[in-house]
Structures are given as structure tokens and as C-alpha cells.
Amino acid sequence: MNEAVRSAGIASQPEANAVEPARDEELAYTIGLQAYIYGYPMMDLYRTMWETSFDPNRGHDRTINEFFFIRRLATHEDEWVVTPNNDTIYHRAFLDLRAEPIVLVIPPTGRRFYWFPIGDMHHDFDGHLSWDTVGSRGGNFALCPPGWQGALPEGVTRIDVSTPIIWLLGRFAVDGIEDLPAAAELQDHLKLVPISQWEQSKVDRPNINPAAYPKFTRNDLTDANNYFTTMNEVLRMAPRLNNTIDEGIFGWLREINMHPSQRFNWETLSCPARRGLSRAAAEGQRIISNRQRRAVPIVNNWQIARLRQKGSDNPVVAAASAMLGLLYNPRDVSTYDVAFSDAAGAELQGSKRYVLHLAPPPPVNAFWSVTMYSAKTFRLVESAINRYSIGDRTKGIMYGSDGSLDIFIQHEEPGVEAEWANWLPAPEGHFYLAMRHYSPKAAILNGDWSPMAVQMR
């Protein structure tokens, strides 16, 4: 065959094969698996935003660009976020900055600890405002979307964020139920002010069109059609500029018409491609779930989470971290130790009896706690004594003469007074523990201090 014939043969192939969505099931599966894991933190954040800001059944009238104040400590009934703490009250907000910057106003807080991590839609952090970094005086902080140029009012500090849609999950420390009224009163002085209304004496409530934000619920996280369709839309709504991780995955997304510049349409995919993406969603969910228990270094069978401000460059770890504890803090704010198993490597089980020996307890500038969670629901565990956590602020706990502390962990109520005082109630089934160190000292950050293993008695 001469060159002209060969060229004619190549030219005679349908040109659409080079640009239409992948027809091969394995190619679609391979691309879909990477896309699912890469997109999981963003999609679970978007799911949280939609369910808490637009779901007609959300139980309140707050939407985006305004605070939703949680004026009580979390309990076993809370399901809006996984692995919540029981140490602080929350002030939650998702902000859409595509129209203009919004100014976060933090009032003077006196001696009360506070934390305001500022996160983008990939769960990377663009900064954190806290008692440690700002001080008790508070301040005014303009949250500016990528590429925004403009003059800010006097007395307003600029903070550039990575995506035009972001989230805030502020926290005020609460020292027990009796301290709640004072902490809740301080929430009333927090403000979110669009820059165009900065000089106004009264700020208008946001006028948001819910139809502009596609519906996405928890069930959609495992529905390939809804997951990838909505992911394509969210990538357009909240783009990051000049991000190498994004650019790398976007080249693959073109193969299935999911690049942000394309309109993804599940119905136009071939049956093999749809099968591949459906497999990818199921397998991605399994991989992320399994990786939760080894997402970070493990010491004494505790996951030692000292999370960086920018974690999306490690997609599997970022996805596993988001599944375990969405809206978590970077290590500058707080650090976490998570245990699913005891010293022997066996899963923690409420029917057994354990002791956690802390010698010494965690070194912190603020405070620390150990919280109990159901391994089935990722929620707090109801108990007869209404104790969800135990820590250095728990009244009546008993320390050893050397300053050490033994925490007794089991479902049945202990019969010994010293054990009862230091009892952390467990559910009947499998559970896990999360130890939080608020404003950790250097010994925690550099690894000089780490928790001892949970011992079965």
C-alpha cells in the first residue's frame, strides 16, 4: 500500500472518534476513579453547602453568605457534619464571592479562645484567624476571590482565597454548659458584610437564587451520574487558578467530556463508558473508606493527624481525611489523634474494657479532649451520664500523683469511684476515639509527644 492510500485510509476514519467521549469501559473506569477521588473533598463540601443552605428540609432559613449559629454543644443527634467536637460552639458559613468580597468581622473576645479557618472548595486552607494569630482584639478581614482588584476601606485587612466559593467553620471555646450563654452572646457580634454595604448601618440579608446551585445530597456521593454531572458544574462555579493538580486531572477529564469547559452529559456516553464510571464511583468510595484508617502516620495504633494547610496535592489522603472529618482544622489551629484499634490491633468494641494512659497529658496552649464516636454513624455516642468527651476541663477527673491520667473506656458503667470519674462511655458496638489538641505546643507538632496505645483490660 502506497503512502497516499495509507493517508486516505487514516482520513477515512470518523473524526468524531478523536473528540467524542471515551467508549472504552476500562478507560472510562480509569479516568473516573481518579476523578472521583480527586473530587471527593470538593463534592462532600458542596453536599454540605447544599444540604445546609438550600435543602427545603434543612430546618432553618439561613443560606449562603450569612452565618448559621449553632448555639449549643454538639450531641448524638447532630448529623450535619461527621466527627464533630463537643468542646466548642460553631458558626458556619459558605460564601459565594463571585459578585464581590465579603468582610468577616470578629469582635473582641477577651480571654475566650476562638478559631476561624478559611477553606477553599478543595478543603485547602487560605488562612486562619484565631486567638493565636490575631489576638483577643479581633478585626475586619476582607475575603477576596481570585483575581479581584479593588481598594478596601480603612481598617480592613485583605485575605486572598483560592476559589470564589469558600467555607468558614468558626469555633468559640465553651467551658461547660454554664458557659454557653456568654459564648452564644458573643456570636451575635460576628458579622459578614458585602464590601458594597460596608458603610451601611444595617446589612441586607442575602438575596440568593437556590436554582443557581444544583441539588446534591449525601446519596448522590455514591450515584455516578449525579456525582460526575454535579462535579462538572462545581468545577465551573469554583475554579482554582494556575493549580498544577487541577491541570493534570483536567487533561484526563476531556476524554469523558468532564473538563470544566465542557458540559458533561451522562446520557451521551456509551453504555461501556457509563459502566466504567459507575464502577469507578463504587470503587472510589471503597478506596477512600478503607484509606481512612491509614490516611496519616500511625503511632501506637493512633492516626497522628498534623494536617497541612494545602493537602489537595495528595488526593487519596485528602479524600480520606474529608470522609473522616469534614471541615477539620489545619495543624496551626488544632491537631488530631484518631484510634480505631487497641494496642493489639483489634477493633475497639464497646463490650470490652479499655484504659488510655496519658503520661503526660497532651501539651497545649488552650485545652485538649478525647471524644467518643460510633464507627457506624461517625456521630457522637449517647450515654446515661451525658458525657461525649473527657479532657483537661472535665470537672472531677482524677489524676495520678505524677500528673498522669487514666481514662477508662467501656459500655458498662464502672463500679469503682475513681474509674467512674474518668469514664468515657462507649456504645455497645464498634467505636473510634478522636483526641483533639487545641493550639498545640511544639512537642505535639514536632513529634516529641504522642499518645500511648489504648490497652484492653
Automatic annotation (TrEMBL):
Domain DUF1214: from-to ranges: 336-441
One Pfam family of this chain: DUF1254
Signal sequence range: none
Name by which UniProt lists this protein: Membrane protein
Domain DUF1254: 64-194
